[in-house]
UniProtKB/TrEMBL annotation:
<dbReference type="InterPro" id="IPR020590">
    <property type="entry name" value="Guanylate_kinase_CS"/>
</dbReference>
<dbReference type="InterPro" id="IPR008144">
    <property type="entry name" value="Guanylate_kin-like_dom"/>
</dbReference>
<dbReference type="Pfam" id="PF00625">
    <property type="entry name" value="Guanylate_kin"/>
</dbReference>
<feature type="domain" description="Guanylate kinase-like">
    <location>
        <begin position="6"/>
        <end position="156"/>
    </location>
</feature>
<dbReference type="GO" id="GO:0005829">
    <property type="term" value="C:cytosol"/>
</dbReference>
<dbReference type="GO" id="GO:0004385">
    <property type="term" value="F:GMP kinase activity"/>
</dbReference>
<keyword id="KW-0418">Kinase</keyword>
<dbReference type="InterPro" id="IPR008145">
    <property type="entry name" value="GK/Ca_channel_bsu"/>
</dbReference>
<comment type="similarity">
    <text>Belongs to the guanylate kinase family.</text>
</comment>
<protein>
    <submittedName>
        <fullName>Guanylate kinase</fullName>
    </submittedName>
</protein>
<keyword id="KW-0808">Transferase</keyword>
<dbReference type="InterPro" id="IPR027417">
    <property type="entry name" value="P-loop_NTPase"/>
</dbReference>
Length: 178
């Protein structure tokens, strides 16, 4: 018998590693157990995105006012700060290679050269943070079904979930340039 892990599960990883795809699959399988928090963002909506569904789209001024009022559990500008009493499990979703990550981002067809550069810079910082050993678990998304099974085992607290995970691949962050 499985039971949900008692603490929050925080899934981190660069844009393009499959976080949204894996989470949508998990939520579809366990609709009464999991949900997706709707974050606030100051960026403009992409085609098909709806305010309040994918994100709460807001102004920078409103966002910073909410930060000052401590209305957010966490917030980030290429890095987040968490309140320690939550004791979350941090899971890093890693790309199998830098080339794969770049290909996924380019394949979206939504990135300008400027936004691609920013995403790659953010990916570099996130991967460097992961290399430091900051996460409790790592899943390398080199196979969507395998990564999904591993994520599910962790999320539902399957026996031995603490032992799930991969070694972080040798990712050369110097390749994270346009």
């Amino acid at each position: 018998m499985c039971q949900l892990i008692p603490q929050p599960l925080v899934i981190c990883g660069p844009s393009g590693t499959g976080k949204s795809t894996l989470l949508k699959s998990l939520f579809a399988k366990y609709p009464d157990a999991f949900g997706f928090s709707v974050s606030h963002t100051t960026r403009s909506p992409r085609a098909g995105e709806v305010d309040g569904r994918e994100y709460h789209f807001t102004t920078k001024e409103d966002f910073m006012t909410r930060v000052e009022r401590e209305e957010f559990l966490e917030w980030a500008q290429f890095g987040g700060n968490w309140t320690p009493p939550l004791n979350p499990v941090f899971l890093f979703l890693a790309p199998p290679s830098i080339a794969h990550l770049k290909s996924r981002l380019r394949g979206r067809g939504t990135e300008t050269d400027d936004s691609m550069g920013k995403r790659l810079a953010a990916a570099k910082a996130e991967i460097e943070h992961a290399i430091s050993g900051a996460h409790d678990l790592v899943i390398v998304n080199d196979d969507l079904e395998r990564a999904g099974r591993m994520l599910e085992a962790v999320a539902i607290g399957a026996p031995g979930w603490e032992e799930v995970g991969d070694e972080l691949p040798a990712l050369d962050v110097t390749e994270l340039v346009l």
